[in-house]
Design brief:
It is built from 8 helices and 2 strands; from the N terminus they run ααββαααααα. 73% of the residues lie in helices and 2% in strands. The chain folds into 2 domains: 11-46, no CATH class; 49-232, Cytochrome c oxidase, subunit III, four-helix bundle (Four Helix Bundle (Hemerythrin (Met), subunit A)), CATH 1.20.120. It is elongated and about 60 Å long. It has a two-stranded antiparallel sheet with strand order 1-2. Helix 3 runs antiparallel to helix 7 (162-195), helix 3 (49-78) packs parallel to helix 8 and helix 6 packs antiparallel against helix 7. With 233 residues, it is an all-alpha fold.
């Protein structure tokens, strides 16, 4: 074989060209004789810390959604098993639940305003919007406690029927998440005040925003499938 034919690159020989043209190779050629440094943003290197933390938290949220799906499935199976006790139509107070829904949805909107303020590095407005978010979330929890207390006073607790057991498990689990979210929110406000807008603090605040919005999505499903359908059954 001649030297000329040996130097010709065959169409099937992609390995020789992949080092030069592969966009996913770290430190790929940016020009003749120069190598570009990996930036950590997409192609050219590993993902940034912000991306990896957010991705990991999304996995946690998906696992939480799976858990809530199991509670929804249990409620769907047991919603008609009242054992001669009160049903949702007799127990649910839709105006109060509508007020709860308004408080939680408004808190999610205010939480978004707090996120925008943090991007502007505006400490005053970030703290104000986060405080309003916590106040609205606390109002939501207060109404939920009031609902549970009224049911228990009417001897309609989780031990009364399978329907009430599944109801308290589903709605109570969401309420626990809201309570934990309020504790997380208070911690974030304190960290922001003491440590400022550090990168790790902003990552945690972003994860909190995702968590709080996810709770809104779950509550909309509860409001629609549990309260609206239950009150009309």
């Amino acid at each position: 074989m001649s030297a000329t034919s040996a130097s010709v690159t065959l169409p099937s020989d992609i390995s020789a060209r992949s080092g030069e043209h592969d966009p996913y190779r770290a430190g790929r050629h940016a020009g003749q004789g120069h190598r570009r440094r990996a930036t950590g943003q997409g192609a050219g290197g590993p993902a940034s810390r912000y991306v990896t933390v957010t991705y990991g938290f999304w996995i946690f949220l998906l696992s939480d959604i799976i858990m809530f799906s199991a509670f929804f499935a249990g409620y769907a199976v047991l919603s008609g098993e009242t054992a001669g006790g009160p049903s949702g139509r007799e127990l649910f107070d839709l105006p109060r639940v509508a007020l709860q829904t308004g408080l939680l949805l408004t808190s999610s909107f205010i939480c978004g305003l707090g996120s925008l303020a943090s991007h502007r590095r505006d400490m005053a407005w970030t703290q104000i919007w986060l405080a309003v978010t916590g106040f609205l979330g606390a109002g939501f929890l207060a109404l939920e406690f009031q609902e549970f207390a009224a049911m228990l006073a009417e001897r309609a607790g989780p031990d009364r029927s399978a329907f009430l057991s599944s109801f308290f498990a589903l709605v109570g689990c969401h309420g626990v998440h809201v309570g934990l979210g309020l504790l997380w929110l208070g911690t974030m406000m304190a960290q922001l005040w003491v440590k400022g807008f550090r990168d790790d603090i902003l990552r945690r605040l972003h994860c909190f925003n995702l968590f709080w919005h996810a709770l809104d999505i779950v509550w909309i499903a509860i409001f629609s499938l549990v309260y609206l359908l239950g009150a009309g059954a």
